[in-house]
């Protein structure tokens, strides 16, 4: 089974075409639309062919009608995503997202490519749960994503991962032992997803405490970190919380000084609370049981396929689709001719 992180492919497609289609005005969507769909399909086709020995393709999608369960647990989760995107390109993401949603709707409606999205789940959850489920049954699984969150899956030798960003397989040994990687992953957080570091939220930046008191808010830095707040509101203070240098080397030094991770956590209540929260946010065991159940139920649903309608919905001819979709179309056509 090939599990495809479609959101990463979306960003790859938009940046690939941005240089060609970007102007100081709005993107010409009529001109851009077909090229965007072709780019997405090219990415899917290229990597499906590279790893066809792993079998069928499943596209994994973030469900957008409800907030992720992670957002319920930590309101500032992914709060920096828009600012991160804006810093990567002058491209108008609003237009690209419109087309991306069109593509996903066509995938769902005509089911030519199996897609899974589940309420309150992210694509990460789907990949983690389905990969583990299949690998435990002895199936070989290829995860197509540059996201290093999936390294944790490689505790099972049936699961491999490829990054189209580096054009390389992602190997757990690149980060040392799996145990070392898991500790580092939990402790250092993820700046892109706004998952904090375990040393964060111990002090406000100068002026923030008084500013909050003027607004009638009287709480500790850690308690304030558990609320939803506007990052830009605190720009004059350099953000709400004081940042201390903390990376992999500093983490190892702290662990060595305390003798173990457990001793480090027991030495500071805030660090311990941050650690326990991060474990739930980034590791597979943190995914709620009901979300896991819903993912597997959705994965096991059968699909039918209408290749012609799929192509029409994207404004393409069947001949413009990837070979594996054309083969589906030809197989159906030949069956109808014989019937």
Strand portion, in percent? 5-15%
Number of strands: 6
Q: Tell me the structural class.
A: alpha/beta
Helix content: 40-55%
Task: Report, as a whole number of angstroms, the end-to-end distance.
Answer: 31 Å
Strand order of the largest sheet: 3-2-1-4-5-6
Biggest sheet record: 6 strands, mixed
H/E element order? EHHEHHHEHEEEHHHHHHHHH
What's the alpha carbon Rg, rounded to whole Å? 23 Å
State the helix count: 15
Report on this model:
The protein has helices spanning 6-21, 29-50, 69-73, 81-88, 93-110, 123-136, 178-188, 208-214, 221-225, 248-258, 261-266, 269-282, 289-299, 307-313, 323-338, and strands spanning 2-5, 57-60, 114-116, 141-144, 159-163, 168-169. The chain contains 15 helices and six strands. The chain has 339 residues and is of the alpha/beta class. The longest helix has 22 residues, at 29-50. A six-stranded mixed beta sheet has the order 3-2-1-4-5-6, sandwiched between helices. Mean pLDDT is 87; it is low at 84-90 and 332-339. The chain is globular, with a radius of gyration of 23 Å.
């Amino acid at each position: 089974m090939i599990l495809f992180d479609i959101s990463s492919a979306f960003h790859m497609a938009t940046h690939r075409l941005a240089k060609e289609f970007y102007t100081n005005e709005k993107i010409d969507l009529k001109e851009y639309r077909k090229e965007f769909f072709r780019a997405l399909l090219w990415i899917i086709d290229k990597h499906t062919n590279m790893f066809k020995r792993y079998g069928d393709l499943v596209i994994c999608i973030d469900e957008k009608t409800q907030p992720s369960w992670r957002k319920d647990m930590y309101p500032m989760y992914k709060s920096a995503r828009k600012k991160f995107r804006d810093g990567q390109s002058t491209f108008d993401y609003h237009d690209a997202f419109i087309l991306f949603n069109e593509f996903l709707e066509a995938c769902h409606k005509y089911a030519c490519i199996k897609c899974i999205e589940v309420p309150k789940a992210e694509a990460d959850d789907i990949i983690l749960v389905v990969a583990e489920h299949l690998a435990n049954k002895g199936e070989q699984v290829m995860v197509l994503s540059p996201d290093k969150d999936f390294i944790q899956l490689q505790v099972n030798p049936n699961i491999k991962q490829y990054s189209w960003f580096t054009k390389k397989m992602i190997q757990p040994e690149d980060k040392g032992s799996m145990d070392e990687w898991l500790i580092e992953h939990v402790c250092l957080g993820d700046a892109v997803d706004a998952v904090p570091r375990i040393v964060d939220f111990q002090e406000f930046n100068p002026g923030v405490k008084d500013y909050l008191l003027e607004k009638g808010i009287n709480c500790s830095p850690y308690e304030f970190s558990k609320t939803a707040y506007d990052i830009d509101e605190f720009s004059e203070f350099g953000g709400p919380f004081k940042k201390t240098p903390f990376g992999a080397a500093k983490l190892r030094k702290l662990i060595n000084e305390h003798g173990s991770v457990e001793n480090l956590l027991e030495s500071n209540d805030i660090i311990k609370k941050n650690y326990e929260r991060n474990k739930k946010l980034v590791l597979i065991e943190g995914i709620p049981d009901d979300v896991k159940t819903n993912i597997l139920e959705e994965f096991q649903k059968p699909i039918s396929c209408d290749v012609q309608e799929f192509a029409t919905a994207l404004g393409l001819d069947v001949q413009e689709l990837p070979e594996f979709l054309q083969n589906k179309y030809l197989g159906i056509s030949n069956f109808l001719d014989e019937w």
